[in-house]
Amino acid sequence: MADPDAQVRNEQLVSQLESSGCLWDAAVASAFRAVLRHNFLPGRPLDEVYEDSAIMTKMGDKGVPVSSSSQPAIMGIMLQQLRLKAGYRVLEIGTGTGFNAALIAHLVGRDGRVVTVDIDADLCEQARANLASAGIEGVEVIQADGADGWPPAAPYDRMILTVGATDISPHWLDQLVEEGILVVPLALAGPVQQSVAFVRRGDALLSSELTTCGFLPLRGQMAPPPPTADSGGLEPWLQGPGQPSGYDLPAQDLRAGFESWLALTQNAYFRPRLRAEDAPVFGLRGAAGAALVVPEDDDYPVLIFGEGDGAAAALAGAHRAWAQTRPQVDQLRIEAHPIGGEAPTHASVRTVQRSNFRFIVTTTS
User: Fold this and answer.
1) Residues identified as active-site
2) Which structural domains are found in the chain, ordered by start?
3) Choice between 241 and 20, residue whose per-residue pLDDT is larger
4) Which of 121, 151, 171, 312 is the most buried (most CB within 10 A)?
């Protein structure tokens, strides 16, 4: 018998996710009601478990988090992006506690198959124990580098990453059926991530949905390069204090998604760290300078570094254009084409080339 208190708290959480609008699919809501999160976070207080928050579960070197139980809201959104049906074969990369794999297993049913891969043996062992304790069957937990997918059980109808990626592995495309869906937290510019639902069409992946998210990064072969901790590897002009441009960004516009829009639509977007102790800043790069939004208490002035007058004008212009209609990232589409293949020729708002894939950003309008 499930803990009655846990059931009550879980129902409160699911109802909260439904009323907020992030959980709208009845099947996914049913999975959250049937699979209780505390079974995958043994020993944690129920007050903590049934908050709509991510919970760190493993720390790596120097106290850096390497695994977590994801926030239930984004879990629900991504499972809805995945559009699961009974009988589907699913590959998950990033097992963590096993909670997400359990939800997937509930959605695909006894005729489905769920394979979940994690790079850490101890996480795999704990996930297996959690799944067994929760009475979840039909999930195969594999210790492996997710960059390779898992060929023995391929092909898959659906794939999902619960870790952030900066590129797509060719193995994921190869192991996904035609018209299959890959859901991946993708960072095309700095740390800004979008959960992208890609549909396979031949050798290309075409997005159907985007939503802003934040996940711990992939480890192993496809781990992103470490973030720059100081200005030593950046242009010398970034070491200066910066000069006021006279243009400020409203804090509410940053919260409303302006940076995410800028990151996906401007090739000149970048996000350095000026010094290790500095708050994150972002802006546009020019040929010999940059304009950066540098937080100062509750103000967000645009500062000019080096010969960044043109970049400052471009940043102000981009903000004014965005403020007219306040578009969101779900109005954008992303195409992913393998490097070496035929490049699309249609108009785009941004192109990002990585080692494996070229990403083309377009608008839906």
Assistant:
1) 70
2) 4-213 (3.40.50.150), 231-325 (no CATH)
3) 20
4) 312
